[in-house]
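Worked example (supplementary).
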Amino acid sequence: MIGIEQRVAIFEGQLKQAGLRMTQQRRLILRILAEAHDHPDAKGIFTRAFEHDPTLSLSTVYRTMKLLESQGAIERHAFEDGVSRYEHADQQHHDHLIDVETGQVVEFSSPEIEALQAKIAAELGYEIVRHRLELYARKLPKAGRKRVKKDV
Amino acid sequence: MIGIEQRVAIFEGQLKQAGLRMTQQRRLILRILAEAHDHPDAKGIFTRAFEHDPTLSLSTVYRTMKLLESQGAIERHAFEDGVSRYEHADQQHHDHLIDVETGQVVEFSSPEIEALQAKIAAELGYEIVRHRLELYARKLPKAGRKRVKKDV
DNA sequence: ATGCAATTGCAAATGATTTGCATTATTCCT
DNA sequence: AGGAATAATGCAAATCATTTGCAATTGCAT
Ligand SMILES: [Mn+2]
Ligand SMILES: [Mn+2]
Ligand SMILES: [Zn+2]
Ligand SMILES: [Zn+2]
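After joint prediction of all chains, the assembly is encoded as:
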């Protein structure tokens, strides 16, 4: 995981090569994403960024997300509710488990599952380009965990 | 896989128990879905049904899909493009591979993957409620397949 | 056949995302 | 530093799939 400053610098380089410009808004949004440890949606990113720059618009957030995605700087996920959520792309590939009660997103990665997916695709005569694996799950009662009150 | 008439009868019974009514539109849409061998979206279902009943409205399709889903008669999927696609629920659980070139949807099922998912969830302290597994893939050149013309 | 509640069709509302356009900001070049 | 060229922004309006309010219709139990 590289630092935020480096991330900004790298992105600025990519922009320059594409004839695009590094703006205050892009810098800010990129920073917000680099600092985020969750999977915020556009509005969430906007809200956080807005505190640093109250002139920022939601349109710019959307446009920037698209740009960042096209540059491979972030990843976009659409979980069950349909809204796009984002995360920076500087981590190894992983999939997500979503707690259906709390909405909490837990990341995991399984080489076995990845291999199995490739095998299945191959058997069907395909090669995987990308995939989506989401587990919607409920917390398991931990053995020895304090009992929940019944019979009030 | 049971017959269409039976499907309609079963659904009518479920409706009666819920104090709901079997209407011409619901009968028609259910039939369309039972005959469908793909994963049509609301507009697609509407188009097919409209040929049998030009007074049908898209709203009714949406309302009916929601009802059918709540009764467990159909399943809803939202692939990458975001629109909801439906299929009847009288088949065994399966996941989908989407051909990124053609959009074709191929069904598959893998007990190994299902087991692996459950194991992963368990290790994280969760029990899976439902999941989503989609492979976006490209057709593999078949060994011995007729060569594509090059150098025209 | 009658009556009431469920359902429908239509149009308008929603909510997330995109887009047109006039204005502003970056870059590049003297 | 100053200016031109044009990319990017903010805002409002447009999209697009889906939902919803409401008045008119229909299904179904009596
Ligand atoms: Mn993640
Ligand atoms: Mn299917
Ligand atoms: Zn994966
Ligand atoms: Zn599965």
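Two points are worth noting when inspecting this output. Residues 121 and 127 of chain B are 6 Å apart (CA to CA). The radius of gyration of chain B is 19 Å.
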